[in-house]
UniProtKB/TrEMBL annotation:
One of its GO terms (biological process) is translation. The lineage of its organism: Bacteria, Pseudomonadati, Pseudomonadota, Alphaproteobacteria, Acetobacterales. GO terms for molecular function: structural constituent of ribosome. SUPFAM superfamilies: Ribosomal protein L29 (L29p). PANTHER family: 60S RIBOSOMAL PROTEIN L35/50S RIBOSOMAL PROTEIN L29, LARGE RIBOSOMAL SUBUNIT PROTEIN UL29C. This is Large ribosomal subunit protein uL29. Keywords: Ribonucleoprotein, Ribosomal protein.
Amino acid sequence: MTKIVDVRAKSADELQAMLLDLRKEQFNLRFQRATGQLEALSRVKVVRRDIAKVKTIIGERNRAAATRA
């Protein structure tokens, strides 16, 4: 599980790359669940929450940039 402090320390490009990696992992976990190969069921929840954290930080930064402009 990623801590929010670690996510906030990343640049915008790093956040986009992290989001892409998490979405790929989420897809793979869903695929494993559908085929009955998934063993770590809790990982699905962790990945989903990490995606939410990254998207929240990206949204906060976008709103902050919009109010400055």
